[in-house]
Every structure is written in structure tokens, then in C-alpha cells.
Amino acid sequence: MTQTAIVIGATGVVGRAVVNQLAATPAVDRIVTLTRRPVPHDSDKVVNQVVDFEQLDRYQAWFEGQWLFSCLGTTLKQAGSLDAQRRVDLDYQYQAAQLAAANGVSHYLLVSSSGANPNSGNAYLKMKGQLEQRVQALPFNRISVFQPSLLLGERSDFRLAERLGAAVMPILCLLPGLRRYRPIRGSQVAAKMVAVSQQPGHPLQTYRLDQLFD
């Protein structure tokens, strides 16, 4: 049987690395990337499908495989409003998870965030926590949640705050008590996700920042 991985958020700093690493994984035969615009790839394993995330139900047939890697995300500045950010970071991802679960996808792998909490007073951490909470009610055989901090890596868009954070945080995190907030490269998160997808594991497991550096 063809072993297929589906990736949403394939143009982001983690998703792009996930696709590249899956393409180099012998046990994965096919990688389906669902994107807003055409995104070619050098590997013959990768099949790109342009989708309208506002009408995701129309693309249910593309959510068939063994794994769904959910790496989608945006910033408040990019989205333009908190509601628009929530639409991407929570609604689109949850709907994708629903479609995959309905199609019998076995293993769901989610990029969340350090500090994700459905009861958080921080809007971003709250929506991340709500997504984690909601997908746990879906009938996946296995759910793996990854909670990185600030992500480092090349991006297609310029993010001043993240550039400044990438420069300052590694130094600040040398101070006692701040190590748990240190930034991590998107490729490191991707490597952990791909490794977890190829190993047996618990039905529900959360990988916090320290575990992502393994």
C-alpha cells in the first residue's frame, strides 16, 4: 500500500522542512502538499494541490493517507486582525483535521506552541490550546503535538519582531530560568516530527521544547 503523508502549511519554516525530510524518507512513498498557490518541488514523491481554505470540504479526497502534518500558521500582522488569524491558526487546521479523520488518516502531527492553553489570557496561546483540545476528540489512532518556541529559519516574508527575537533570545536564554524559552530552528522541529511519524508511540503525546532538541 502506498504510504502517503499530507502536509498543510508546506510553505512555512517548519512545513517546508517537513516536506524536504519526508521526501528523503524511504518509508514515505507520496507527499501531498495542500497550498494556496502552486509550490513545485524537486522530488517526484511530492504532489502539490492548490486549495481554497475557505472551501476546504471540496478537497476532501486529498486528505487520504497515513499521516497529516499540520504546520499551518500566520501572524497577527499578516492576517490583519485577530479574527483572521484565528481563522488560519484554528479553523482551517481543525477543518483539515476533521477531513483527515473522516478519511481514516491514522496519525495526526500538529505544530502548536510553547504555552498553548485553551484558558490562556493570551489570544494566540488560547487559540493554539483550543486547537489541541478540539483535535483530541477526533478519531485518530495517534495524535502527536509539538510545542516549539520562537522558530528560526528562512521565511518568504519579512518579520521584524521575529528577526529581533532571533538575534536577542539566544543570548537572553543563557540566563538562569530562561532556557526553556530558547528559540529552535524549524528544521529541528521538522526532524522530530518526521522521526516520530516513523516510530511507534502513544495514542496522545505532547513534545515540549526540550524534547524537540533531541
Please, could you describe this protein's structure?
This protein has helices at 13-23, 76-79, 82-102, 123-135, 160-172, 186-197, 209-212; strands at 4-8, 30-35, 46-50, 67-70, 107-111, 142-146, 151-152, 184-185, 204-207. Residues 155-175 have low confidence and may be disordered. It is globular, with a radius of gyration of 16 Å. The protein is built from seven helices and nine strands. Helix 1 (13-23) packs across helix 6 and helix 3 packs parallel to helix 4.
Summarize the structure.
This protein has 214 residues and is an alpha/beta fold. 36% of the residues lie in helices and 18% in strands. A seven-stranded parallel beta sheet has the order 3-2-1-4-5-6-9, sandwiched between helices.
